[in-house]
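Re: your question about Protein translocase subunit SecD

S., sorry for the slow reply, the queue was backed up all week. Below is exactly what I fed in.
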Amino acid sequence: MAAPKKGRGSTGGQGRPGRALVLILIAMVALTGGMFLSGHTTPRLGIDLAGGTSITLKAKSQPGKPDAINETNMNTAVSIIERRVNGLGVSEAEVQTQGASNIIVNIPKGTNSAQAREQVGTTAQLYFRPVLTVTGGEPTPEGSASPSASGSGKASATPSAKATDPETASDPKTTPSASATTQGRAVTDGLKKDETPTPSASTSGAPASSDAPAATGKPDPATAALEKKFTALDCTDPAARAKAGDGVKPEEPTVACGSEGDAKYLLGPAEVSGTDVDDAKAQFDQQRGIWLVSMEFTDKGSKKFQTITKKLSSQQSPQNQFAISLDGEVVSAPQVNETLSGSAEISGSFTQQSAEDLANVLSYGALPLSFSEDTVTTVTAALGGEQLEAGLIAGAIGLALVVIYLVAYYRGLALIALLSLLASGILTYTIMALLGPAIGFALNLPAVCGAIVAIGITADSFIVYFERIRDEIREGRTLRPAVERAWPRARRTILVSDFVSFLAAAVLFLVTVGKVQGFAFTLGLTTLLDVVVVFLFTKPVMTLMARTKFFGSGHPWSGLDPKRLGAKPPLRRSRRVTARTDHPKEA
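Result:
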């Protein structure tokens, strides 16, 4: 009675193979349905297959910081640029260093690739600077009326960076008036941190109005040079815009142009840097029906922001504005009408796109270095398409050779192997298609190579199991017990083999960059799917096939014919004969 119990225990897993098959079929149907419902029926393609833009950024030396271009700062810049571009939803943007001072940015062709290129081209440091004066973008004529920005006071920060019409500037109902002495005092206060202005330094930071009282004394040379630079700045000239803030340190005042080119600014020293911003998001205010940008600051940045907003909220326009300066351009200049601390809200005439752009700049715009756009190259998909076609042909040839080998050597068992390969292919394709919109995965040439290599890994698992079954039949067992007894030994071998492959893929993914990571990711994914397919599909199907007459009777074309395998006589029968012949001798 003990022997039958042991036999049933060894084959207990063969009773309900349908459960495993139902589970994997449900998974395949769910993934396929999700793929069609999401509208992403094909995997996203990388830059080498879909084409795109390759940008080379060259790091520029920082004033007073000759050692700023180093490995640490370059790696930090790579990380920020990558997060910044990917924050726009661009798939598989590749950002990596080249040499000591260059960064290569590959942006695949897609919906947001042009927008990403614009933001990659403005990869300088991000600062919050107080606005001292703002006027139109053209050079200011000597002796003209001193302009000031108009805007209504709000509790939240509201963008108000437009130049004031000279006709409305003189209207006291439209624009707060300020004498030249008052404006000069405000400007001089903002030129240097912790410096108390002297009576002789009360000259206007902007061109003085002819109607305003004349200021006494002469400004210091630095102030006079800055005023002259502001007066002469022409923001309608692209070359002048690009050079407006060159060589200026964060603790120094500067001049800058608005991002739209219709305003120029005289700005005080940087009070808050982009590194002080913890997070920024574009949100839609349902009550007011407008788009806005909410900001969260770090603990250190919150204290800085509270100090500057307290100071600005007591000023008249435009001295109650702070400018968000990126790469020497003012991307936004909100007014401040109350003291703000840990968080702030920028509202105004935002569209969804402009709100998202500003939030992305605030989140990822602070870089340790400034960069210039060295070269821009458009990559076509023609070469990649040819290589992909060649790779697919090679994969098809390899798959055909595997099928021919399986049919010639394993005969009927080749059907189980082909069904398993089909199941693995469906799972791999649907998961790759869904991973595109989910995590930005894009299929490139190395990833295709990884998928082709996976065919051999999957076929190897089938061969291990089939050979274990054939070994059991050679030992004299029938097919059904042979299938169950072979599984534990084959399972251990398959798991060890797949673990080694997955470990190699994981290490390769962690220590490499760029396209090689696509190969490692695909290899690791297909290795995991191999385990799933062997356990939930190949083994249950083999159990069901063993119950059929074609396989169970050892048909010559089943691949499990005992005669062709050189099976030995049944083990139990030989043991019983030996026992009967030995017993009389012992007696």
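The longest helix spans residues 479-511. The longest strand covers residues 126-135.

Happy to talk it through on Thursday.
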